[in-house]
Amino acid sequence: MKMLFVGDVVGTAGIEILERRLYKLKRDLAIDLTIINGENSAVGNGVNRASYQRLIRLGADVVTGGNHSFQQKGCTSLYDEAETLLRPANFPEGVSGRGSCIVDVFPVKIAVISLMGTVGLEALDNPFFCVDKLIEEADTPNIFVDFHAEATSEKKAMGQYLAGRVTGVFGTHTHVQTADETILGGHTAYITDAGMTGPELSVLGVDTEIAIQKMKYHCPVTFKISENPAFINAVAVEFNEKLGKANKIERIIMR
Ligand SMILES: [Fe+2]
Ligand SMILES: [Fe+2]
Predict the structure, then answer these.
(1) For residue 107, how far is its CA from the centre of ligand 1 (angstroms)?
(2) What's the rounded Cα separation, in Å, for the pair 87 and 118?
(3) What is the CA radius of gyration of the chain?
């Protein structure tokens, strides 16, 4: 089987390029399952009902999250209702929504886990202990993890920690695609960061001039998404669904 993992979708430009290109990309690569990180898909960051529904309609099976998951006011009811919208699993108990789900690609079951790092980000529960528990509970060898983290060291550590235990670990959050895609231990597809689906000529999706103003003068600014043309950053993984083992990982940049 083949799965596609799409890096952080930024704003309307990110959604629009997927609406134009994803259907054909999935068909050309014979994709069976698509996971999209949607933590920046709403205008002003976060996810809302409109951006979630657009991602599902354009072909996402699961939408994963990160530090911006709860940025939109009133989004908690959406998290309670939408079974294929994930927020990081290591949020404290009592937080709305869920951090993992099972997708039924009949007759194959695939578990998807959204997890967040704690180095340089919020002090959530320890992601290593959290993922151990979720793997133990997963009733399938096919497990994909979106590890939303700032530090490359934490992502590398998580990849190697999960080598041989899950089908794929894909880093997100830094919005820059890394060139270190590999199959760890002959089993686990891994990339430190899948990248960003949004305006290419920008600062992580934000309008360049505004980002420079902020960094140069340290004054408050209102972030605006860049209006430059968007690109798609993703990885495609071929895996043996009987063993939950990845055979091949391929980086995708589509302009
Ligand atoms: Fe992001
Ligand atoms: Fe993030």
Answers:
(1) 33
(2) 15
(3) 17
Q: CA 47 from chain center: how many Å?
A: 13
Taking the C-alpha atoms of residue 20 and residue 40, their distance in angstroms, rounded to an integer, is 19
Angle, CA 42 vertex, CA 52 and CA 7 arms, to 5°: 75
Active site amino acids: 68
pLDDT tens string for the chain (255 positions)? 999 999 999 989 999 999 999 999 999 999 999 999 999 999 999 999 999 999 999 999 999 999 999 999 999 999 999 999 999 999 999 999 999 999 999 999 999 999 999 999 999 999 999 999 999 999 999 999 999 999 999 999 999 999 999 999 999 999 999 999 999 999 999 999 999 999 999 999 999 999 999 999 999 999 999 999 999 999 999 999 999 999 999 999 999
* 149, 126 Cβ separation under 8 angstroms: no
Question: Cα separation of 28 and 31, whole Å?
Answer: 8
Q: Write the DSSP assignment of 148-215 as a string of letters.
A: E-S-HHHHHHHHHHHTTTSSEEEEESS-S--S--EEETTTEEEES---EEEESSSBTTB-HHHHHHHH
- How many whole angstroms from 175 Cα to the centroid of ligand 1? 6
Q: Which ligand is nearest to the CA of 204?
A: 1
Helices 152-162, 127-137: axis angle to 10 degrees equals 30
Q: How far is the CA of 199 from the centre of ligand 2 (A)?
A: 16
Among all ligands shown, which has an atom nearest to the Cα of 41? Answer: 1
